[in-house]
Amino acid sequence: MYELLKRDGAARRGRLHTVHGVIETPVFMNVGTAAAIKGAVSTEDLERIGTQVELSNTYHLHVRPGDQIIRKLGGLHKFMSWEKPILTDSGGFQVFSLAGLRRIKEEGVYFNSHIDGKKIFMGPEESMQIQSNLASTIAMAFDECPSSVADREYMERSVARTTRWLERCKREMDRLNSLTDTINRHQMLFGINQGGVYEDIRISHAKEIADMDLDGYAVGGLAVGESHEEMYRILDAVVPHLPQEKPIYLMGVGTPANILEAVDRGVDFFDCVYPSRNGRHGHVYTKQGKRNLFNAKYELDERPIEEGCQCPACRRYSRAYIRHLLKAKEMLGMRLCVLHNLYFYNHLMEEIRQAIEEGRFKEYKKKTLEGLQGGKS
């Protein structure tokens, strides 16, 4: 159940009650594609840095180690030793990114594994079955994720198929949750709005799926090549047509600035690989912008990554030391940068929630954006 606690303009402060605990929103989900955050981040680390939700990938876990194996081991929570909520994305985006390896049919998608070339079929029912085996808190519907620059005729056909697939996902999820041997019989289902950069297609699709009374609604197919301005335009158009009594999730987004802008437009859930991917390359987020710790100017810099930050890296280590680790290709350097970035994102969301509660989100957003644009180096 989603509980709306406070509005500040379009920005929303809410609470999603789940079988694995309460999610305070707006929230950033830490991305652990294969049931682990890249960068040697443990479950204990996630707890220490304030992670609320971990996100794992249906397709990747299906091909390795196999969802049946995870089911036999008691589900993803037990497998990872993580008690809080987990969201699994449907595998749709990964399947459609394998453009040269797949064929889309009404029944689903035929494709080859990126690991060993093995033939795989995935449709709405298969995606729900895999996610049920993983026993995640929230399952995402299986959708087609067309290119944002696809022509209008293709986009209309694709969105219509996504709607038909969503109906099949809902039926299969209801069936699976009714079975006595299902690990998580309270698994939630979020549907996905598609339509590229066509406002009218997006709005029409949002109205159509709003009637399905799902547990939450996502905006997909953005942050895949269109400009930030186009993304904000689509959010302005589509978010008001999604059910306001349900959580709204912007998939695969984004930078701290993207998150602030999307919260201002009524979005509650976010995920992105940026903090972990950038951290592994020595790029760290601060309130003064992004820093590249490989830069020579940090060679003798005894300050933490960000002064005042309470993450495990900043509480103990200097920029100079972390730079040395990165240059020496020591895994600890990568790990500390990833921990800092994830802490930064999780803490940013805490500040956003507090600002909305106190009715000062616009002021907070303006001040934070000004800082972020300040000292990139």
TrEMBL record:
EC numbers for this chain: 2.4.2.29
Recorded catalytic activity of this chain's protein: 7-aminomethyl-7-carbaguanine + guanosine(34) in tRNA = 7-aminomethyl-7-carbaguanosine(34) in tRNA + guanine
tRNA-guanine(15) transglycosylase-like domain: residues covered: 10-370
Superkingdom field: Bacteria
Co-factor remark: Binds 1 zinc ion per subunit.
Region feature RNA binding, mapped onto this chain: 252-258
GO molecular function: glycosyltransferase activity
Gene3D superfamilies xrefs: Queuine tRNA-ribosyltransferase-like
InterPro entries per the UniProt record, alphabetical: ArchSynthase1/Queuine_TRR, TGT, TGT-like_sf, tRNA_ribo_trans-like
Keywords noted in UniProt: Glycosyltransferase, Metal-binding, Queuosine biosynthesis, Transferase, tRNA processing, Zinc
Transmembrane spans: none
Entry binding sites for Zn(2+): C309, C311, C314, H340
Active site per UniProt: D89, D271
Pathway per the UniProt entry: tRNA modification; tRNA-queuosine biosynthesis
Residues annotated as binding substrate: D89, S90, G91, G92, F93, D143, Q194, G221
Pfam families associated with the record: TGT
Cofactor: Zn(2+)
Keyword Metal-binding (UniProt): yes
UniProt function note: Catalyzes the base-exchange of a guanine (G) residue with the queuine precursor 7-aminomethyl-7-deazaguanine (PreQ1) at position 34 (anticodon wobble position) in tRNAs with GU(N) anticodons (tRNA-Asp, -Asn, -His and -Tyr). Catalysis occurs through a double-displacement mechanism. The nucleophile active site attacks the C1' of nucleotide 34 to detach the guanine base from the RNA, forming a covalent enzyme-RNA intermediate. The proton acceptor active site deprotonates the incoming PreQ1, allowing a nucleophilic attack on the C1' of the ribose to form the product.
Quaternary assembly: Homodimer. Within each dimer, one monomer is responsible for RNA recognition and catalysis, while the other monomer binds to the replacement base PreQ1.
Family per similarity comment: Belongs to the queuine tRNA-ribosyltransferase family.
Protein's name in the database: Queuine tRNA-ribosyltransferase
Gene behind this protein: tgt
